[in-house]
Each structure stands twice: as structure tokens, then as C-alpha cells.
Amino acid sequence: MPNTVPCNLCGSARGVPQSRKARFLNIPEPFGVCRCQACGLIYLNPRPTIPELAEMYATHPYFSADNATRGKPRRRFYASRMERLERWRPQRGTMLGIGCLEGGYALEVAQNRGWRVSAIEFSPILAAHAREQLGVEVEVVDAWDLSSIAGGRFDVIYSHSLEHFPDPRASLRQCRKLLPNQGLLMVEAPNTFRSIKSTLQRAIIYLAGSNAQQLFFGEVPAGFHLYYFSPRSVRAMLESEGFEILELRTYLPRHPVYHGNPRLGWLQELFYAVGGPFDRGPTIEVIARVVG
């Protein structure tokens, strides 16, 4: 049974269906994509219920232990990410990781750099992989809810799962309560509909027909991403929950997720580098801190 929700950013129920965007992402009915008429946030609506999401995270092959290992060769990329974070906080401390997709390899890197790391994860498969293979302390929670660690305190929270949260504003509010004043939050989310890459992909699909979707999208489950953020909507959501943006970038050199074609890697890199200064790169990386 699909679940209908209001806009998570402004609370408006005036969501305009975006059928072309749903076709672009190969999202099957009865699920769909809508755009908030009031603030412009794009999100999955209608979408799976929380129990349906829990079943997906526990059973779908995308969240298998085999798929989790794809992060293994990306340790160098995660090390450069931690270097960017550590420019704002050179001294090591406690870090909470939210999400272990790719098996928690970013958290393993942080742990090896001297951070005291613990994590939460919705998928029991990914949590087990991070615990057993990488030595990261992980707790499985329902729908990314942080209530079980509400009494904790962390110097930094790191996540590349913002687009997966059923209620990102509530999750960010929970994060803020776990951080001290000036505590840091680092998040990454896809720049799905604003990037140059996405614009070109959509043009190809519209010209070549729906069969061209298979060039870009595999068998990703409906509900995999619940929100399709832009730099503007990420900034607005973080600031609405008491965070100050320190850095926001959409171009990360040689990002391993977005350079899958070894022969055309140079062309991809060119597009991403050109788009970056205009917030049109393929991903959104933000470093923010608690203020007030």
C-alpha cells in the first residue's frame, strides 16, 4: 500500500506529480515523484510504507553483503573526504556514522585515522558486514531513528544516506541534539535532477525512448531514494534545523560512484568539473556545524 506524505521541507501538501521524472528514474506505479509547489523540494510520493522499506533493506539484493564490498577499493576517496572534514576539526574525537552502504568503508577509514566511531544502519545486512568485516560498532535501528542513542554525544556526525531518510528534517533535528555547539555534520546526497550528467541522461532517454533507461539504471528498488535534493534544498533544510553551512560542493574529483566508465572517464570528469562551480556536479557534499 503506497504511503502519501507532505513536503518534508515546508510541510505543504501541494505536491505536483512529475511523471517524466518518475519515468526517467524507472519508478513503477503506484509510486511516483512529485515537486512541492511551495518550496520546490522533489521527493518520492506516493512511496513505500516504513514496513515495506524495512523488508526492502533486509532482503533486496542491492543491500547484499556482496554489493557492500564495492566500497573496498574506494578507501583513498574516503580518506580525502576525511581530510576535508579534519580541516575544520583537526583533533580526533567521537564520530557517529549514519548508514553503512558500501559496507561502512568510510567509517573504517575514519576509525583508522583515529576517530572513535560508532554507527547506526537500517539494513541488518549492511550492519553485519560493517561489524564483522570492518570492526565498526553498528546498531540496527528502524527507519534511521536515532532515539536509541538520544543520550549520546558526538563531535562529528557523518552520513551519505540523507536521501534515504523517511523524515530527513526529524533526523537532522536528532543529529543536532547529539552534537555540541560547533559540532560538525558531514553529509552527501546525489544531485539527481540538477547535475549536467542528469540533464544529458534525460535528453538521451527522451530522444531514444524508455529502453535507453537501462543504459543508466539497473534494478534499483522503488523507494531506494525517498528525496531528490538540490544544493538549494539541502542548504534550506540544514539551515532550518540550526546548522551553518561551512562548505557545499557538487564536484569531487574522481568520485568513484560517478566515474563508472573507464573509457569515458575523462569526458565524465570534464562535465563534472565544468558543472561544479554552478552547482551542477553529480553529487552534493556538505560540511555544516551547529550554531546557537
Give a short summary of the structure:
Helix content is 33%, strand content 18%. By secondary structure, the chain is α/β, with parallel strands linked by helices.
Overview of this protein structure:
With 292 residues, this protein is of the alpha/beta class. It has a single domain, classed as Vaccinia Virus protein VP39 (Rossmann fold). It is built from ten helices and eleven strands. The chain has helices spanning 19-24, 50-59, 65-68, 75-86, 105-112, 124-134, 168-178, 196-208, 231-240, 265-275, and strands spanning 15-17, 33-36, 42-44, 94-98, 116-121, 137-140, 156-159, 184-190, 227-228, 243-249, 283-290. Strands 6-5-4-7-8-11-10 form a seven-stranded mixed sheet, sandwiched between helices. A four-stranded antiparallel sheet has the order 1-2-3-9. The longest helix is centred in the last third of the chain and has 13 residues, at 196-208. It is globular and about 50 Å long. The mean pLDDT is 89.
Summarize the SSE layout with pairings.
Blueprint (H helix, E strand, L loop, with lengths): L14 E3 L1 H6 L8 E4 L5 E3 L5 H10 L5 H4 L6 H12 L7 E5 L6 H8 L3 E6 L2 H11 L2 E4 L15 E4 L8 H11 L5 E7 L5 H13 L18 E2 L2 H10 L2 E7 L15 H11 L7 E8 L2
Parallel strand pairs: 4-5, 4-7, 5-6, 7-8
Antiparallel strand pairs: 1-2, 2-3, 3-9, 8-11, 10-11
